[in-house]
UniProtKB/TrEMBL annotation:
It comes from Aedes albopictus (Asian tiger mosquito). The keyword Oxidoreductase applies. This is Multicopper oxidase. The lineage of its organism: Eukaryota, Metazoa, Ecdysozoa, Arthropoda, Hexapoda. Residues 1-20 form the signal peptide. The keyword Oxidoreductase applies.
Amino acid sequence: MWKIAATLLIALDWCSPIDSFYGFPLITEPKEVWNILKENSSATSRKRDQETRVYPGEECDRQCTVGEPSRVCYFHWVLENYSAMGSACWDCLRGNRAHCFHSQCITASGMERAMVAINRKMPGPPIVVCRGDTIVVDVSNEMEGMSNTIHWHGFHQVESPWMDGVPMLTQCPIAPGTSFRYSFRADDPGTQWYHSHSGYHMANGHLGVAVVRNPLDVNADLYDYDLSEHVMLLSDWTLDSVERWVPGQQSTQMKVDSILINGRGRYSNEATGDKVDYVPLTVFRVEHGKRYRFRLISGGSQYCPFQLQIEKHQKTIISTDGGAVKPHAVDTLISISGERYDFVLTANQPPGNYWIRVRGIGFCNIQRVEGFAILSYADSSVSTEKLMFPEQAPPLYDSPYPLGRTLNHHMTECYTEGDDFACAADLESHEVHRDRELIESKPDVRLFLGFKVIEADNSMLFKPPYTKFATVRNKFNTIGVANNISFISPSFPLLVQPELIVDENTQFCNNTHLPAGCDQSHTCYCTHRLQVRYNDLVEFVLYDTAFEKQDFYHPFHLHGHRFIITDMGKLPVEATKTRRLKFLQEREFIRRPNSHNPPYKDTISIPNEGYVKVRFRANNAGFWLVHCHFEWHLGTGMGLVLQVGETHQMLKAPRDFPRCGNYGTELQGPGNF
Ligand SMILES: *[C@@H]1O[C@H](CO)[C@@H](O)[C@H](O)[C@H]1NC(C)=O
Ligand SMILES: *[C@@H]1O[C@H](CO)[C@@H](O)[C@H](O)[C@H]1NC(C)=O
Ligand SMILES: *[C@@H]1O[C@H](CO)[C@@H](O)[C@H](O)[C@H]1NC(C)=O
Ligand SMILES: *[C@@H]1O[C@H](CO)[C@@H](O)[C@H](O)[C@H]1NC(C)=O
Ligand SMILES: [Cu+2]
């Protein structure tokens, strides 16, 4: 034992960014290192005069101060097929409130359904750490017959690209019955989150909070408290497993049945009159006169943006996707899957209970779906459990709160002086300096990406090759594409086993190099890859290629980087496709180049019949997924891989990192099959 510990101490002095695994050189078996740290939680190692100690993950949730020792935060998660309102909830269904609070009871919308859970919770266990801590999560997959991976949304994995959690890009899927250790440094401060990146597990329950507190927040003087109980994770929920939109289980339509706030909501169906009232709602407690930092995570899987309002309370936005912004006060905050917004709420109203309401809008307007939680000023003599069953009924759908000052209303223009509407692109970054170089230089490469959902008819679906599609309803089938290509996963993780890329031209495609048999007028199915040089200044011009006005738009998410938004708007109406593209190609300038300090984000919506331009420095070598954040759009191909740098410029995964691929041997015999 002593000998290993000594090796550890010596090894730490040697750490070089290229061959190290979180500070431990690769010559030390990473597994061994972690085992030492885990087995003996009082074991310490010295790292540049600092102590790093392993803590049970929950103990990392603390106030963060500059210069304090960072921690290794250890979690063990078990993934299981489980049920909402199942046996663990006993008589919750029949009005026994105490049973609803059993630690393994997931109430969700109050309706029993199959789901997948992490440690029998939904959302999964929260991760709240300080910047510089190391997050270690052992994931044991106990889901019969289903693999999984977890993506850490907002973490750029600069030192550990193989921890990004994308199956067949950065790791092998975690097979049932096996476990995988995620381990990475929390270098990206802000409100981040995690979710499954495999199949449709996220929509069935695999999602949770990952907050990285920053001891040096520029907006810190705007709030008195930054508490983990004020993190608000919004998600959508259905009456049964979302696999019903995988072909085979015909469904009347793709639908959001409930909206959950921190995993709690109440199913209600106006048509049938069914209304759940026996499950608890989430309560956020505040004290009169205090200012609180709230952290909102928009964790939807389906196509509805969420509209958040808090009765009689304004929200002052101070951060989005982890990047600090200049304070911006709003009454209504609209967000789309993958985005995060932090806001300050001042408890300045007469003490009482106030409704927090989240409405599914856009395509969901017709579904009239809303979720509720409670903002309570009650003093500590009233238990939270009691407050979770409000005595008053929530406001009716037909009595909406006024919009007031609104962020991200998708039917209005951005950048209009003097009106109440702003969009994410209008927020002003509030970080140490304005990155003039990124804002003002000419990009080294501009990539145009058109996103679209194709309505696939039988002549397209039922001929070779077999293709993935989603069944929205009856015979209405769809396929997601980017630049007319529907993404097919490689058969091995590109980052981990790049030596298996024998011929780039057959392995990958893009819209100038399409595989045989597909052309501009046919959808292509292949591993869509765009490559940029390491350190290039990259501009993505993202646009909606749907040629119709609809309440519908795609949330764009880039892995491994954050970007600035330099322009956003609508394409010329009544223009042909070619003219729209030409408009984008000619639109070189940056709106408000001198005064505006564009916000940093990692997720942004592409307006319907509109566009958004984003820029970033490609300084994180690796294979990074670029995709629409709706589960079905990604699941049916609306994504691609951005290769940053050559494979020899990428960090190498640890030697014992899992590897996988096709198995097959040469057949001796006549002909080709
Ligand atoms: C754990 O570490 C402490 C301090 O290094 C040591 O005294 C103790 O014996 C160790 N315990 C085990 C079980 O190795
Ligand atoms: C596990 O859950 C998923 C998603 O809800 C479902 O599709 C699958 O059939 C379940 N598996 C088992 C063995 O119950
Ligand atoms: C997609 O295909 C259509 C024809 O079906 C073509 O007009 C359009 O230019 C293509 N778009 C892209 C981005 O390649
Ligand atoms: C498109 O694919 C070809 C062939 O693999 C490649 O040479 C080219 O660089 C790709 N274009 C981009 C922008 O990545
Ligand atoms: Cu989409």
